[in-house]
Amino acid sequence: MERELFMRKKVTIVGAGNVGATAAHWIAAKELADVVLIDVVEGVPQGKGLDLLEAMPIEKRDSYIVGTQDYADTANSDVVVMTAGSPRKPGMSRDDLLNINYQIMKAVIGKVVQYSPNCILIIVSNPLDAMAQAAYKISGFPRERVIGMAGVLDSARFRTFIAQELKVSVENVTAFVLGGHGDTMVPLPRYSTVAGIPITELMDAATVERLVQRTRDGGAEIVKYLKTGSAYYAPSAAATEMVEAILKDKKKILPCAAYLQGEYGISGLYVGVPCKLGAKGLEQIIEIKLTPDEKAALDKSAAAVKELVAVIGV
Ligand SMILES: NC(=O)c1ccc[n+]([C@@H]2O[C@H](COP(=O)([O-])OP(=O)(O)OC[C@H]3O[C@@H](n4cnc5c(N)ncnc54)[C@H](O)[C@@H]3O)[C@@H](O)[C@H]2O)c1
Known about the structure:
By secondary structure, the protein is an alpha/beta fold.
């Protein structure tokens, strides 16, 4: 890439599969940065990258997109989005992907760091919290520069279901999800609102619980339909929102997986919490007071992450 000709931001996406290529699409369509797609499968990132590049005149965007197998092309990326890995198949949990994707993480992160020592890493590969922790340990980066994507997706799913249920604009709906990306995630209804009104004021408890459960099962619902592969439009849009918050230094509060060092009473573990994202990456973790039930649910979720990271020893 003729980097010196341009002053645009550079985003590398590792893994040119469903999530990676679709993230490239969203990023280029928003003209957030130039994009390098890298994958082990020869030709696929090149083909998808060129195809996307050829859409730019129609979209009136000047993002440059290129596909490659060579990490030298990723040099000096501002943000690297890690989507390499195996997706879930029907009947598989995210945790089944643990060992397969940890091996991939070990193969990739060192090379990313070698060529982009100052980048901010956004991890998408599953099982999310454990892979974020693996990337944090392998990279040697400070926690500010290794952030996991899960909560933006989980809360977008919750927002979708709330908007559908109440027949209101998705723009009116905010949602709050804590915890690991898995069956133990902790949606917080009292902090989920429609035009500022907590949803607990607008729906009965049974309806809230039904939407919470659908949110927890949101990934599996899509896997069941697709049969081969898992969700990718919303996951890639979620990663793109994080990329945008960082590249534009928006100081946006988003639920992300972050390495906790005492926040929420948890230490040495990646768990989903409200994070402020800006040019430095993770700029602040927002702590809120939890009810005893919410704290118990968060601790249970953290314990599930802890079990996984113990298996791979990170
Ligand atoms: N965090 C989340 O909320 C979330 C949501 C959706 C998917 N995911 C995860 O994201 C990952 C990707 O999902 P997908 O649907 O795009 O899968 P996919 O199979 O479509 O794409 C994965 C790509 O990674 C590539 N790859 C494998 N090993 C590689 C390596 N060493 N270097 C570079 N590329 C490599 C594959 O060739 C493939 O193209 C999966 O682990 C999935 O579980 C996470």
